[in-house]
Write a structure and sequence with these properties.
The complex is a heterodimer of chains A (about 325) and B (about 260). Chain A is mainly α and about 325 residues long. In chain A, about 70% of the residues lie in helices and about 5% in strands. Chain B contains ten helices and ten strands. Chain B has two domains: about 150 residues, P-loop containing nucleotide triphosphate hydrolases (Rossmann fold); about 80 residues, 3-Layer(aba) Sandwich (Rossmann fold), CATH 3.40.50. The chains are: A mainly alpha (about 325), B alpha/beta (about 260).
């Protein structure tokens, strides 16, 4: 398929457009993972360092389910993907809930450093547990969703938007919309916001704050699993160490956008993804982390609470 | 004589070697406004903290509706119908007025997640009832027109009234107000005064009040307890308290 509209674009702008598409794709997945950091921070003021591992586990589970269903002779791809999504989300949510139950809840009310250490311990545990169970080498999955649109001048530069990228955008958009509605409209979302403002008072009003906190871990884990499935399909490989770097990036995105703010995490993810894509397009790709973390430092210098951090954004 | 709603006997709170509250007795009957007064640091708020479950009392009994509640967790006590406010305003300031009122009713909306997702008839009915109750109490405290304002943007007097409305929406039987008039101007204090009296007379609630504003206390209380340095000093009707030499001495010092 081609669009006459963009035929007139120069090679440079077509190239730029391509990088923008790639950046928004990666950025969407950063945003999905970043939600988990920002929500947990919003409600208990702590960074869940095991969150990247949840993403990695979500990726593994979806690989296992997809490979299993393909092996069983199933051919309908949409059905396979939906089953993989559901299983990955359910299992990752269970992991997220367990992390809260094991590493956070028993330590509630203690010095803030202590849960931080236990979360790092949880992260190391989960990583090694996957190494033991699945091996430390890359696990590959053949591309499931191929094809896409290309446009631009074949003589100059062809921009491609793959179906996979489109899927990532759509799924992310749907997740973010549902989450925003849930937080702003639903009863549980209300309890969640109340809890993030004043946990003691929320408890006094008869709301089970433990359950509310557990719920934020579960929501974060579910979204991380969605990202795990999407990025797994996009890259086609997963190994037990992908959680570390993805977690770091998503954490950066959350801080960039203003930790505690859900729209901030979404925006931060997109900005980080685009920055990375553009940097590696115009400079040696080794610079991409230098530039994105440099950007983080700059933003924190001039807006310490992040782009959408206080004063008026709702925290969760 | 009406039945005792709250019956406190020998309430004692020690922090290490410090006795903050020493053998305090209190009685609140149905539809009564009872005040606890005393100089700063007398231990009034500590009494409240013990009654509402913030601290388990070191000693003594707290009977609420004939049931021992000393040492129960705060949220269990509030569920039984004994609800408090704090010296400083503790609203959810990033949420709207109506959301503050709805959060307080969360427990009464106890339906499962599926009901919420599919908006079942029961769920919608419960939401509507919560909404109606919220509107009713906002009306009572003259705040209905501010329903969609963010609580943090309200004036201090409005925040105080919203706090009381938020307590009332949980349908308590005894309301503990910790210095509700602190920081209010005379006009706002008067509104508060009328509100508390209305709670007793129209809504049949009992109120236990800590307050420094003597005109408020003397004007509306059915009974007053005086505490000084954690120890009960006197109790009686406003007139008796006004003439009690011990109380005058504690407040004004020796002549």
């Amino acid at each position: 398929m081609s669009f006459d509209l963009v035929f007139t674009m120069s090679e440079a702008s077509l190239y730029f457009l391509q990088q923008l598409i790639n950046g928004l794709t990666i950025g969407s997945t950063y945003a999905l993972i970043a939600i988990g950091y920002t929500m947990v921070y919003g409600i208990i003021g702590m960074i869940n360092f095991a969150h990247g591992e949840i993403y990695m586990i979500g990726s593994y589970i979806s690989f296992i389910v997809i490979a299993g269903l393909l092996g069983m002779g199933m051919v309908a791809l949409p059905v396979i993907l939906v089953i993989a999504l559901v299983v990955a989300v359910l299992m990752a949510s269970t992991y997220g809930w367990t992390v809260e139950r094991v590493a956070y809840r028993p330590l509630r009310g203690s010095n803030r450093l202590i849960p931080l250490i236990s979360a790092i311990g949880m992260s190391i545990f989960l990583q090694n547990y996957v190494v033991l169970a699945q091996g430390s080498r890359d696990v590959a999955l053949a591309p499931q969703i191929s094809g896409g649109w290309t446009f631009g001048d074949p003589q100059l530069f062809e921009v491609s938007l793959s179906y996979m990228q489109l899927l990532i955008w759509i799924v992310t958009l749907v997740c973010m919309t549902v989450l925003t509605l849930f937080i702003s409209r639903s009863r549980m979302g209300r309890a969640c916001r109340a809890c993030s403002e004043d946990q003691g008072m929320t408890n006094l009003l008869g709301i089970d704050t433990n359950r509310t906190i557990a719920m934020t871990f579960v929501i974060g884990a579910a979204l991380a699993a969605v990202a795990g499935l999407l990025l797994g399909l996009y890259y086609g490989v997963v190994n037990p160490f992908v959680g570390f770097i993805a977690g770091l990036k998503a954490f950066t995105a959350a801080v960039l956008g203003g930790i505690g703010s859900i729209p901030g995490a979404m925006l931060g993810g997109l900005i980080l993804g685009v920055t990375e894509a553009l940097t590696s397009a115009y400079f040696p790709s080794e610079y991409k982390d230098v530039v994105s973390f440099g950007l983080l430092i700059l933003i924190l210098l001039f807006r310490p609470s992040g782009l959408l951090g206080k004063p008026e954004v709702e925290k969760v | 004589m009406s039945q005792l709603l709250l019956d406190v006997n020998g309430l004692t709170m020690r922090f290490g070697g410090l006795v903050a509250v020493n053998a305090v007795n209190l009685a609140v009957r149905n539809r009564q406004i009872v005040s606890v007064i005393g100089p700063n640091g007398a231990g009034k708020t500590t009494v409240f903290n013990c009654l509402s479950g913030f601290y388990p009392p070191s000693d003594g009994s707290v009977m609420f509706k004939g049931e021992q509640i000393a040492g129960l967790k705060d949220f269990r006590i509030s569920r039984k119908g004994l609800v408090r406010t704090f010296q400083h305003v503790r609203l959810f300031s990033n949420m709207t007025v109506i959301e503050n009122m709805l959060v307080a009713q969360h427990r009464h909306l106890n339906t499962n997640i599926a009901a919420g997702l599919f908006k079942t008839a029961t769920y919608r009915r419960l939401e509507q009832e919560a909404m109606d109750r919220a509107a009713f109490w906002l009306e009572q405290v003259d705040m209905l027109s501010f329903a969609n304002r963010e609580a943090g943007n309200l004036s201090y007097g409005q925040q105080r009234r919203l706090e009381i409305a938020r307590c009332m929406v949980t349908q308590p039987e005894l309301l503990l107000l910790d210095e509700p008039a602190a920081g209010l101007n005379p006009n706002e204090t008067k509104q508060l005064d009328e509100l508390i009296v209305r709670l007793r007379d129209e809504h049949e609630i009992s109120v236990l009040l800590i307050e420094h504003d003597m005109s408020l206390v003397m004007g509306i209380s059915d009974h007053i307890y005086v505490i000084a340095q954690g120890t009960p000093l006197a109790d009686g009707t406003p007139d008796e308290i006004k003439q009690n030499p011990d109380v005058i001495k504690a407040y004004l010092g020796e002549e």
